[in-house]
Amino acid sequence: MLKVPRFAISAAAAVVMVVAPLGLMGSASASTSHASKGTIAFLRSGPDLYYQYGLKGAEAAAKRLGYTIKDYPNPNVSPAQEKTNVENAIASHVVAIDGYSVGLSTETATIDAANAAHIPIFLMYGYSKSYINNKDVIGFEQVNLEKYSMPVGAYVKSHSSGGQVAIITGQLGRGDAEGYRTGFLEGLGCGMDTSGATKKCGKFDYVDQESGGWLRPTAFTKTQDIIAKYPNLKVLFVENEDMAVGAHSALVAAHKAKQVMLVSQNGAPYGLAGIKAGWLTASDTCSPFLEGLVSVRLTDAYLRHKISGDHLYYSYTVFVTKKNVNQAVGWNPGNAEVSKLMTRALPKPVSPNP
After folding, report:
1. Whole-model pTM?
2. Same domain, 119 and 210
3. What is the SS3 assignment for the chain?
4. CATH number at residue 256
5. Which tens digit of pLDDT belongs to each residue from 53-69?
6. pLDDT tens string 9-44
7. In terms of residue numbers, what domain contains 225?
């Protein structure tokens, strides 16, 4: 999916890569509280399964910490709907706002509205340094954007003979999709030419970019468009695995699934199944469930004055291929694993904020 500016690891990165592991910052109790501490509003900026699993993680943590989660979905990725959702959350006197924003401009409005109502807010993705030192911003949680995609590009560089490369990005405008593209191209070994307009990629020819909006049907259509223009395409990087499923379907329909190396990121269950089956070659994995769970734990710690606000936190990630796919970060942990995650040390904030 994952929706947002970004962040260098050598192109010789190992096949297994862990970005910003969870640090030592103190643990929270895993016991379930029965007296509600209030309602946390959860914003979902679109219909993507990534956001749905993020919600599940937030609900799992809230249940154990004594909060109620109120889901405010935004199925059409609409700035206007996000504005309405935030207004409704404020009117409901929630104790905090958590979740995902549609884009940077929308995010600014959402943060400003929460601040005006003196409601603490924590967002996953969309980090900008301009939001720090804002007294009601608890923080941001996201993968280290450019570094997250670098090992995917580095893997392609070392495991492909070269040729035409294209990218299907997520929804542009929040910074994450842009950061993933930059990181992949850096890992691939691309550099700007003297005009600053063309990517030089050694044995690769970076030919096209299309936005799939994080969604499978759109990625299917965009892949059709790309292979119609570039029938000799050799590599396709797709920025989340819901879109990768759509891209694979288009490649199969065009009889190009064996011709095109398909790589992605996120580690969705169907993406990991694709790696095991062989149609997806590699993925850098993270867990929206874990991100959602950690976001509520950090929000709770802030509300209890255990941590200060204004921080960026990096998500836990693992790069996988078929050789180590079982090490991927899980999206759907069972109750026993959730209980362990609730006692795990909270992540350290990134310092200094990039």
Report:
1. 0.83
2. no
3. CCCCCCCCCCCCCCCCCEECCCCCCCCCCCCCCCCCCCEEEEEECCCCHHHHHHHHHHHHHHHHHCCEEEEEECCCCCHHHHHHHHHHHHHCCCCEEEECCCCHHHHHHHHHHHHHCCCCEEEECCCCHHHCCCCCEEEEEECCHHHHHHHHHHHHHHHCCCEEEEEEECCCCCCHHHHHHHHHHHHHCCEECCCCCCEEECCEEEEEEEECCCCHHHHHHHHHHHHHHCCCEEEEEECCHHHHHHHHHHHHHCCCCCCCEEEEEECCHHHHHHHHHCCCCEEEECCHHHHHHHHHHHHHHHHCCCCCCCEEEECCEEEECCCCHHHCCCCCCCHHHHHHHHHCCCCCCCCCCC
4. 3.40.50.2300
5. 999 999 999 999 999 99
6. 333 333 333 333 444 344 444 444 445 899 999 999
7. 145-285
